[in-house]
Amino acid sequence: MDVASLADLLHETAEHHDAYEKAAPPHDWWDWYAAYFDARQGGSTPDEASAAAARYMADVKHVVVSSG
């Protein structure tokens, strides 16, 4: 991946992480970013990647966003 594409993906990731960051308990942002990156590079849409990152955070890191 070239630098410009990586910068674009980082920017996209930051935008999608914002909603999670606001709703989630304290967590290490790099864990969410890594799961999002992995999903996007695997062909997921941004929304699918966000969901995959949230699942990873819940299942592996035990960081769960409450629904209410």
Give an account of the 3D structure.
With 68 residues, the protein is mainly alpha-helical. 71% of the residues lie in helices and 0% in strands. It is built from three helices and no strands. It has helices spanning 3-23, 29-41, 46-59. It is globular, with a radius of gyration of 12 Å. It starts with a helix and ends in a 9-residue tail after the last helix. 16% of the residues are buried.
The backbone outline, from C-alpha atoms, is globular
Order of helices and strands: HHH
Number of strands: 0
For the record, give the distance between the C-alpha atoms at the N and C termini, rounded to a whole number: 39 Å
Count of alpha/pi helices: 3
In terms of per-residue confidence, which ranges show pLDDT below 50 for 5 or more consecutive residues?
none
Q: Outline the biggest β-sheet.
A: none
Could you tell me the mean pLDDT?
Answer: 96
Oligomeric state as shown? single chain
How big a fraction of the residues is strand? Answer: under 5%
Structural class based on helices, strands and sheet pairing: mainly alpha
Q: How helical, in percent, are the residues?
A: over 70%
* Computed CA radius of gyration, to the nearest angstrom: 12 Å
